[in-house]
Amino acid sequence: MTTFHTEIASKTAPKRPLAVLLFGAPGSGKGTTGKMLAKLTGWPHLATGDLLREQIARKTPLGLEMQSILAAGQLAPDELVSRMVWDRLSWPDCENGFLLDGFPRTIPQAEGLARWFEGKAFRPVMIHLWVEYNEILRRLTGRRTCPLCGAIYHIESNPSGVCEIDGAELRTRDDDTEQVVLARLQTYQSQTWPVAETLKGRGIAVEAIECGEMDPEGVADRIVSRLERVAGKFEKRNSKEISGAR
Questions:
Q1: Cα-based distances in Å from 243 to 142, 183, 238
Q2: Annotated catalytic sites, by residue?
Q3: Residue 234 has what pLDDT?
Q4: Is residue 137 part of a domain?
Q5: Are 205 and 230 in contact (CB under 8 A)?
Q6: Number of structural domains found in the chain
Q7: Residue 107 lies in a domain
Q8: Max CA-CA distance within the chain?
């Protein structure tokens, strides 16, 4: 198991705060990685799904507009999704840096984000979590979910197919079947990856992290090293403080 840096990023930002854009195919571990990096850096982890649910829960004008669109079975338009993200990035907790997960997803969103960075102090860096497709298939098609408590397992670590919390029989989610996973990967290749190329063409740095067989701690460790290489050393706190914060 990869060992963390004995000292890792504190909540104090580098001279130019980092804006980290997490990219990767479904099953590459963006959500897990984003949450771990948020704990290590103190930067907010902004996943578009969470932002949308927050807007709806707060019953903001934007949230109500999005809710009506989604209730009609339509996809949220780029303009509304972008407005939601710009609103969240204006919050004070983003001033020292932030982690974007799931945005941008389209070329218009990417072009809007590149324009948003113009004239701002942030140093944007795209982290591409690279995992071989066969490994993604193994991860997602082997995933099992408890219908009662929502706990998630993998058939390799829980071959019994029974939830360890409440004893319910585990189920395969509809979007974890091989056919659906393959379709999602094809969509990523044809629609989402060109977004990364658009950002790269606008001068945003790209750092590829090969993480197929690495544990989450190892992936986070490697990302911190890459970010330090791009932006310089962060001010540190020691590993004991991190352990106590977990």
A1: 31, 40, 9
A2: 30, 105, 143, 173, 184
A3: 62
A4: yes
A5: yes
A6: 1
A7: yes
A8: 55
